[in-house]
Design a protein that fits this description.
Elements: E1 11-12, E2 18-19, H1 22-30, H2 32-37, E3 39-48, E4 56-65, H3 73-84, E5 90-92, E6 99-101, E7 103-108, H4 110-115, E8 119-121, E9 124-126, E10 130-133, E11 144-145, H5 148-151
Parallel strand pairs: 4-10, 10-11
Antiparallel strand pairs: 1-2, 3-4, 3-7, 5-6, 8-9
Length: 155
């Protein structure tokens, strides 16, 4: 048996990912990391407690990549939710009196999105939905859901 010691060069991208080839690392930084910088993250809450509090008891997470077309990240998520809720923004309020919103949307950090904290309501924990709204798949994210091309023709 022979023991050999070898030295290799490793190229490390800005996010810490390692490559054995400088060109691959450069392409990754210029393409993939640029895309990752253009993703916005949201928490959307659904399912109101219609008996007492009127508060939302389910929260879910969405990452939105729109490819630099515009700054309508929020609107892309809103369009997706409108499709999911049959175009209804309004729903019944507490104990059937009045109306209220069907969901709420707030921007969060990338870390919060990937932490994917479970729902906890009334002593029970439930899973959360984590979606990725994008016209293209991006490694490390759930299967992409196409929203823009579903509703408008894109070039």
């Amino acid at each position: 048996m022979e023991k050999q010691s070898k030295e290799i060069n490793v190229f490390i991208a800005k996010d810490g990912k390692e490559f054995l080839n400088e060109e691959e690392c450069s392409v990754y930084e210029q393409d993939t990391l640029k895309k990752l910088d253009n993703i916005k993250y949201f928490k959307y809450c659904t399912g109101r407690d219609l008996t007492e509090t009127g508060m939302f008891f389910r929260h879910n997470y969405a990452a939105v990549y729109i490819g630099g077309w515009d700054n309508c990240y929020y609107e892309v998520l809103l369009q997706h939710l409108l499709g999911k809720y049959d175009g209804k923004i309004l729903s019944v309020n507490v104990q059937g009196y009045g109306v209220t919103s069907s969901f709420s949307i707030s921007e969060i950090t990338k870390e919060d999105y990937f932490a994917k904290k479970p729902n906890s309501w009334g002593g029970r924990s439930t899973d959360v939905e984590q979606i990725f709204l994008s016209e293209i798949p991006i490694e490390g994210y759930p299967d992409n859901i196409k929203v823009i091309s579903k509703h408008i023709k894109i070039k």
